[in-house]
Amino acid sequence: MKLHTILAALFAALLVSAADLPLEVVRATWGAGDRKCDATAFVSGRLREGKFLVLSAKNATAILGDPARMKTKELIATIRVNGEERTLSVGEYSAPIIVRTGGDYPVTEALTVYSATYGYGSKTADMLKTVKTMMAEKKKAGVNNQFAGSDPAKNKPKELIVLYSVGNTLRALIVPEGKFFDPAEIR
Questions:
Q1: Rounded-to-integer distance, Cα 143 and Cα 151, Å
Q2: CA 129 to CA 111: how far, in whole Å?
């Protein structure tokens, strides 16, 4: 088993907290060494409610391409929190980093789902009630516009992002449009 896989399993998410101020993505890149592409729109698409960002390389190659073939890539994002710029990075196989600046997302031992949105950036559909119902019924579903009841972000690569806490850790599940949401993955 590779070291990055072991580390990803041990560290489900790194949490960065700040005051209740909006969070913004300044810039982002995807790649390795001098072979990088702009990933600002991709990272901005993971910003929800202006209060939390799930920084993850999941689906980056599918959406952004592979600027550094045969090399382990990194997603590097500069964000602004409390007027200060911070640079964060996640490797191609790393666990996500969850950055939050507000909202009621306390870390809990028992499973608690705080947010479920389908869309891109600020153009999202609230899927919290649907996701909770599917969890109770242990029902899987395809993630698409029919699942959400509409297309909240036309011509954009949409994702279902579920923000939850369990085992005293804040976590996120990201399911790209066209894939299946399985409530059993929220653990």
A1: 11
A2: 15
With respect to residue 146, please indicate whether it lies within any of the assigned structural domains: yes
Residue 51's pLDDT is what?
81
Do 8 and 93 have their domain in common? yes
Tokens coding 80: 């602004």
The predicted structure's pLDDT at residue 9: 40
- What are all long-range contacts of 155-158, with beta carbons under 8 Å and residues at least 24 apart? 156/45, 156/119, 156/120, 156/121, 156/123, 157/45, 157/59, 157/63, 157/120, 158/118, 158/119, 158/120
User: Is 125 found in the same domain as 96?
Assistant: no
Domain stops at, among 47, 73, 100: 100
The stretches in the chain having pLDDT less than 50 are 1-20
User: Is 105 within the bounds of a domain?
Assistant: no
Q: Are strands 14-17 and 97-100 parallel, antiparallel or unpaired?
A: parallel
